[in-house]
């Protein structure tokens, strides 16, 4: 079960696993796939610690790092002297306070927009990390480890990222949601394109994987393409290869694995959700990102009193602080907080009904891929 | 290149072609696929004439008919004594008149909501046809011809349709956009399920083909499933088979064929469109249906003065009358009418860049399917 990129990346299966959890990254890499750590939630020091841990686990097997480098950010947020929190309008802070009151979310101190997130960090640090300068710090740390890929999750990889990666001999991947973006990313130096359909979790465009992948493959050839969005089993992996992709990039499927650090309340929501229970909403980051439907998305997207989402990274700053507090309240059993709690996930959430080890997910996908291709061979020969 | 349904339906390729144009239906059937005529625009007498023409063309080769039987219609519209036009509120008529004035659409007489559509018929006839009683008349006509399939495009096939089809020995197909609908359709007697992703043209749900098809296949087994939405080339057909479908159901790809009766202005828009140029909008029928973005969809969906779409079939009645006039004005060169003109089409519109005979489309799809499956066999053996 090999495509050309297997040789290029030193892996057994053309299966790339995006996760914010180091245990998932290590487990997939050890199972013969390629784990990619999402670095946005980390400070450079934290990232260094996580990657050192992964290095010890995978013992030379290949893995990668994904950083969020927004192509277009709110200009006010790029002033290095400014405190990002100062740019959040009063009406948005008030709306979050209103949601806390309406849903009875307790707070041991007065709620502060941008309060500490899941990883101990200040709001300003979090905000800066998704600016160009913030991402550069993470890139430097990542390239000091023996990574096999560095990915830009949003927007064109900046020249500094491409230059540094080239100098380190590390291929650059870029996620795209349109043909035009794919063309631009290859022009900017991407060595691998991840064509991500609208059904994917997190930041997505509007075009489905089925429609997007063949167009991107034709546009960027001979640059290899991974398919992302709607892929969580072996039949979907087979479909991605049939569309012309050289492999797949999966994110959502790991969120309900044993290794995932997904908060228990959210994990239970995911296990119970159908494929109708996600929405593309700006309410978490300021850009359209697919996530579980919850009171949080409904209030921001539909309530008449909603001020609407702020641009990135301001909405991210406001939302992640509030959702960290909501998450803690939800885990301690507060019913209103449980209604609000959500997380990024793709439409495949409807298939995720059981907690499994990440390694088992890999093996089951590869086995089903094999069965699916055998069935297709029979059809073709008939 | 055969699946089980090829034997069952007497076809060479598991490729079902939905079209409102009899020439496309006949061409695909003659090329070894299975043409399905969309009957909603016809009166029973017209349908009889169209099917007699197809009978003469295909000489015993299999084809089918698709009727629109809405599961949930505006109750006021089911009163057989009422004139449907009387149920269209003044504010909606006024908004259409406003659009005609704003875009300078000429009218040789005062615009009347529900005025004659592309096929000569009264608005009331058109409206009734999408009620249960209207659809029944079309079903009776269809079953007097040697059809190999009768399909329900929207909602559960009503008992009368299933009974009549059973008595005539004709399998019943039903289009679904969710797993729950698939379960219900099989319960109602559907012999074949068409699982249609959100990327499809016309009435669609929210779940993508990649995510929907495997779930529907698992839910309704052993009832066979066709995949629809996002399928317009052989790689996409291969992907559908990889997902577990027994075949594919394509609609959009025929709209730019030589045989299609697509109005020239709309055909040119389709050839120029990218996959970003469609939208799911209620503005044509009252239910979410994917179509070209145009001034028509933007005004109904986004303008502050828009009264919002009426329920089906009232919006359909209002829109089809107006769009018929807009279409005529667009073809005669009126620029405002050209901005408004649109039609149902899926996201694959971005792939449709060249007018081809329908037969060539079939052969190219099958050839590319063959290449795609060969590539996959190599990957599996590697």
From TrEMBL, chains A, B:
Family annotation (CDD domains): NPD_like
Any single GO molecular-function term of the entry would be: monooxygenase activity
Task: List, alphabetically, the InterPro entries matched.
Answer: Aldolase_TIM, NMO
Keyword vocabulary terms for this entry: Flavoprotein, FMN, Monooxygenase, Oxidoreductase
Gene3D superfamilies xrefs:
Aldolase class I
Among the Pfam families in the record, one is: NMO
Protein's name according to its UniProt entry: Nitronate monooxygenase
Q: Which organism is it from?
A: Sphaerisporangium flaviroseum
